[in-house]
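Worked example 3 (structure in, sequence out).
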């Protein structure tokens, strides 16, 4: 009898533990999904990309600048999601459901975030605040027919990826550089160029991986992205080649910067190969956009260990 009771108690305990585990995992997924569809996660990417850029430029990170880039990233991507709401019904239905009925509210709070980011930088360095207009200007130019009879940049394959990547590079690197009151104390032009190229290529690869995610919906909507034009297999080859070009810059970096870049290059190979096929959109956000957060936390941990004299 006691043996039977113990068996039942053990069975009930395992069942309850399993249900609790499922509940916790589902709750974590819901939180991560909210961070993703609300653009808070991409805002965090802007923050940590800027933080990493500071370190690669051999400059002391300015948290206020990182915060400003968080706000402008959050704002631009929220407005972009509002503009693409109809297309998102096919590609990312979860995001479309989140924004449905919140369109006007999203426009208001994203506009306020943009304004706040400009104020933060303008107070310290008015010239640098003008660079925050680059993402918005790029969006306008990208979707506008500048010359009658010629296609919009939006209608030209690869232009979206290049414009997004260049905007990220300008905001995350040139703002920290120009914010220096004495530019002579900042990084050399060549080092700045290398970091800009690194950030440009990494972001370009990320945007194409999102095109792979959206490939089926883009074919339906007749959107000519790289995966639609050359196929998933050739797209993967292009991304691997682009990622390999980052190795060329390694000799000009030293210490932790070289280690960080090499780690991000290796990580880049891994997620290119994994996401060469459509995967869980939430997992794509975590692995691709989340790499900057993981790299920052990892690097901070190493620096703390070095400061305290602990073995790394």
């Amino acid at each position: 009898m006691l043996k039977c009771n113990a068996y039942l108690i053990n069975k009930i305990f395992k069942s309850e533990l399993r249900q609790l585990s499922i509940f916790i995992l589902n709750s974590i997924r819901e939180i991560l999904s909210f961070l993703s569809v609300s653009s808070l996660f991409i805002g965090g990417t802007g923050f940590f990309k800027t933080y990493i850029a500071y370190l690669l430029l051999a400059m002391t990170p300015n948290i206020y600048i990182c915060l400003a880039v968080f706000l402008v990233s959050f704002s631009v991507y929220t407005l972009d999601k509002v503009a693409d709401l109809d297309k998102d019904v096919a590609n990312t239905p979860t995001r479309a459901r989140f924004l449905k009925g919140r369109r006007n509210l999203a426009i208001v709070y994203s506009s306020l975030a943009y304004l706040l980011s400009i104020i933060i930088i303008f107070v310290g360095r008015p010239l640098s605040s003008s660079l925050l207009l680059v993402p918005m200007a790029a969006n306008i130019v990208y979707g506008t027919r500048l010359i009658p009879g010629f296609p919009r940049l939006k209608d030209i394959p690869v232009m979206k990826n290049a414009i997004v990547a260049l905007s990220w590079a300008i905001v995350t690197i040139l703002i920290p550089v120009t914010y220096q009151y004495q530019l002579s104390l900042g990084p050399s032009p060549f080092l700045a160029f290398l970091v800009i190229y690194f950030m440009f290529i990494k972001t370009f690869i990320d945007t194409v991986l999102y095109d792979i995610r959206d490939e089926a919906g883009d074919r339906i909507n007749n959107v000519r992205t790289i995966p639609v034009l050359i196929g998933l297999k050739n797209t993967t080859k292009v991304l691997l080649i682009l990622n390999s070009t980052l190795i060329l810059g390694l000799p000009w970096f030293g210490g932790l910067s070289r280690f960080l870049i090499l780690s991000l290059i290796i990580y880049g190979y891994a997620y290119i190969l994994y996401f060469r096929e459509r995967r869980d959109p939430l997992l794509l956000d975590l692995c691709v956009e989340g790499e900057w957060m993981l790299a920052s936390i990892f690097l901070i941990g190493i620096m703390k260990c070095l400061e305290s004299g602990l073995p790394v």
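Notes: The mean pLDDT is 80. Residues 38-308 form a domain with the Farnesyl Diphosphate Synthase fold (CATH 1.10.600).
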